[in-house]
Specification:
The chain is α/β, with parallel strands linked by helices and 306 residues long. It contains 9 helices and 13 strands. Helix content is 24%, strand content 24%. The chain binds guanosine-5'-triphosphate and zinc ion.
Length: 306
């Protein structure tokens, strides 16, 4: 195409978005910088990672002309209480957690799951490093399958990038989808992607719990194309899976298995110490996992002020 022609409208994905414009992922896999037309800016503020956009090339420069209606968005509330869309058109949130080295952090898993539920995004779990299952610090996979698979109803995949176990299941899990990948540092996200794409030489990006949980950390996401219409969304910062903005009385709905416990005596029950609480009863008789309930209580009492 000549530098001076105006191209027909093309559909592209927004790979990343910054103050001075966006990076587009063109259908051929090429990434280019683009400016955002003012009408788009007025309507959407800014395109976000994952947006499907109509773009046009005018005299060598790319412009975003239109943003398709978003589905599957990841939102957070900004420090000043404004809702911010972080990423759009997510088909699946995949939470990667190692069962050992570093030890499993159930609190992180439950927070990320609750956040996905609040955003109404389907979620799945990948328990990685199962080659370490016989080590003393390893979390019990039978328990994890029961709690997250059977009781909470999520797809659970067990993997090891060392032995290759479960790598095909992981590949099938994400195939053809736009996937937001969540996991603490060193859980093995990069290794998993490299296991299915040995030729892809990239750092998936470091998620460091200490530096990215700070209140003023910028959270931006980027889209990485894999084969067969599969896109990985790298969301740096655990803040992307914040639960700060979930009203306390709604948090229980973000723990999927609580629903199955039946009705509590009080409609506004927070499942703490209330008499006639069906959730507490289920925890008592083991149909809801104690640790899941503890995670819930922890999130319920988390400092909600910014
Ligand atoms: N034993 C074992 N080690 C693994 C496995 N997968 C990854 N590792 C190791 O764990 C370490 C961290 O893996 P990464 O893939 O860099 O983890 P990450 O989640 O991408 O980490 P960040 O980039 O910091 O977010 C590396 O030393 C890997 O070699 C596994 O299945 N088993
Ligand atoms: Zn209750």
């Amino acid at each position: 195409m000549s530098r001076w022609t105006i191209s027909d409208n093309t559909t592209a994905r927004i790979a990343s978005s910054g103050k001075r414009g966006v990076t587009l992922l063109l259908p051929g896999g090429e990434t280019v910088k683009a400016r955002v037309s003012s009408n788009v800016f007025r309507e959407y503020k800014n395109p976000v990672c994952g947006d499907v956009a109509t773009v046009v090339n005018r005299q060598g420069a790319w412009y975003v002309e239109k943003i398709e209606t978003r589905k599957g968005i990841l939102e957070r509330t900004s420090p000043v209480g404004k809702r911010q869309v972080l990423a759009a058109n997510i088909d699946l949130v995949v939470i990667v957690a190692s069962i050992a080295s570093p030890p499993l952090r159930r609190g992180f898993v439950d927070r990320a799951l609750a956040s996905a539920e609040w955003n109404r995004l389907p979620a799945a779990l990948v328990f990685n490093k199962i080659d370490l299952r016989e080590t003393t610090e390893a979390a019990d996979l039978t328990v994890l399958e029961k709690v997250y698979g059977k009781q909470a109803g999520y797809t659970v995949v067990q993997t090891s990038t060392v032995t290759g176990e479960g790598i095909n299941s992981f590949k099938n899990l994400i195939d053809g989808k736009t996937v937001a990948l969540a996991g603490i540092s060193a859980a093995g996200k990069t290794s998993l992607i490299q296991a299915i794409h040995p030729d892809l030489n990239l750092r998936i990006g470091s998620v460091n719990a200490k530096t990215t949980k700070g209140k003023h950390t910028t959270v931006s996401a980027r889209l990485i194309p894999l084969e067969n219409e599969t896109f990985l969304m790298d969301t740096p910062g655990l803040r992307a899976f914040s639960v700060d903005h979930i009203p306390k009385e709604e948090l229980g709905y973000c723990f999927t298995e609580f629903e199955g416990a039946g009705r509590c005596r009080f409609r506004n029950c927070l499942h703490e110490t209330e008499p006639g609480c069906a959730v507490l009863e289920a925890v008592e008789n083991g149909t809801i996992d104690k640790e899941r309930h503890l995670s819930y209580l922890k999130l319920l009492h988390e400092d909600n002020t910014f």
